């Protein structure tokens, strides 16, 4: 990033801003694999059929047939975003938020789609378009813990020249991030990069934010095992050069591995929440609900907390 650190009076220029956004490629609302999906062929409507998943045509038909159900629209939005059709994703997520105006994850997904839909190469490109910012702010109104919205609101501060404020926000997010969460390594990398660019010491502050963290549900009295590990920095770097099929296979493998782990450690409440988040962000609402029911069956004494977490994810 060092070559992209030209500054304007108001902070990082738009090019540096977009580099910063690119550094968050794997950040999501708890999704395993998230934007590892992000460079697929935008025209392959039959791509999913080969893997037994719905095609884009099928997803569009399901959404069109569901004027009062946000889930098919969210699934369509995820699929379009994965194929770099950000305008289409924003439209689908926008429809989902119109149907369900209380799901924070839908608003943070909408904000990101709107952000990436902005043409970064246009002379008047806005690295944080107002509609995207509005969506992120709505997401944190609904769920102050939404990591994607919190991250991008920090990006807004950095773009406005408040680098210290952005780093402080990201450190707060890091302190709330369960150890091994899928976005953890990427968040740390972003903090270090922006600290280096702006000559702000961050290493000791990162260590302090990470010291003594407990996964949120463990802090509330549930769970017993540590959260499963997310992708390492090396895996993240390697994912950028993968083909679409290889990325899909990696993501599915990570989710499958998590499910298998939970069979052996069913008391890991954080793992169940991570699995539910992953299924939601993969557009697999039925599997997300099934994960909730399995988590409750394994941990009946934690049903209230599990349902609370599921509700924040938009699982009904």
TrEMBL record:
Keywords on record: Cytochrome c-type biogenesis, TPR repeat
Q: Where are the TPR repeats?
A: 70-103
Looking up InterPro entries in the UniProt record yields: C-type_cytochrome_biogenesis, TPR-like_helical_dom_sf, TPR_rpt
- Work out whether the entry's keyword set contains Protein biosynthesis: no
**Source species, domain of life:** Bacteria
What does the record list as GO biological process? cytochrome complex assembly
According to the record, the segments passing through the membrane are none
PANTHER family in the cross-refs: CYTOCHROME C-TYPE BIOGENESIS PROTEIN CCMH (PTHR47870:SF1)
| Protein name as it appears in the record | Cytochrome C biogenesis protein CycH
């Amino acid at each position: 990033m060092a070559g992209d650190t030209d500054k304007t009076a108001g902070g990082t220029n738009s090019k540096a801003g977009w580099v910063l956004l690119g550094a968050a490629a794997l950040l999501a609302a708890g999704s395993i694999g998230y934007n590892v999906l992000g460079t697929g062929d935008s025209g392959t409507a039959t791509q999913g059929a080969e893997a037994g998943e719905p095609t884009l045509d099928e997803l569009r038909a399901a959404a069109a047939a569901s004027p009062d159900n946000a889930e098919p629209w969210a699934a369509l939005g995820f699929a379009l975003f994965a194929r770099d059709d950000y305008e289409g994703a924003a439209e689908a997520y926008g429809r989902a938020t119109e149907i369900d105006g209380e799901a924070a994850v839908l608003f943070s997904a909408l904000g990101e789609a709107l952000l990436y839909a902005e043409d970064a190469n246009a002379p008047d490109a806005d690295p944080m378009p107002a509609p995207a910012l509005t969506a992120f702010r709505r997401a944190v109104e609904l769920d102050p813990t939404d990591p994607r919205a919190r991250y991008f609101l920090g990006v807004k501060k950095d773009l406005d020249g408040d680098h210290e404020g952005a780093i402080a926000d990201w450190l707060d997010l890091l302190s709330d991030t369960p150890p091994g969460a899928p976005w953890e390594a990427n968040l740390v990398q972003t903090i270090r990069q922006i600290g280096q660019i702006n000559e702000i010491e961050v290493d000791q502050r990162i260590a302090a934010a990470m010291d003594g963290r407990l996964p949120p549900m463990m802090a509330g009295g549930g769970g017993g095992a540590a959260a499963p590990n997310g992708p390492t920095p090396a895996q993240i770097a390697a994912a950028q050069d993968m083909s679409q099929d290889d990325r899909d296979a990696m993501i599915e493998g990570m989710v499958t591995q998590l499910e298998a782990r939970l069979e052996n450690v069913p008391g890991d409440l954080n793992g169940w929440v991570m699995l539910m988040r992953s299924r939601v962000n993969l557009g697999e609402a039925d599997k997300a609900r099934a994960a909730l029911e399995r988590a409750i069956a394994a941990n009946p004494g934690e049903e209230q907390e599990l349902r609370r977490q599921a509700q924040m994810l938009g699982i009904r």
